[in-house]
Amino acid sequence: MPRSIHTPAQQRLSQMLREERTTRGVLQVDLARRLDRHQSYVSKYESGERRLDLIELGEIADALGFDLAKFVRRFRSI
Prior knowledge:
By secondary structure, the protein is mainly α. The chain is built from five helices and no strands. The protein has one domain (8-77): 434 Repressor (Amino-terminal Domain), CATH 1.10.260.
């Protein structure tokens, strides 16, 4: 049975990542450049269309300048 990517937890993660980006005033296209990816990569994980692995999540944290451990703790506490 295939797993849905549209779980409440996945939606929460997508929302938190979008908030991290927007509170820093970074556009999707700018973040994509920092990650050396296409803008659609950022759009897809923010919309919940694409899942991220831990390595990708770490790269996004580095590109936006937030602490990954704190981010995960906040995610887990919601």
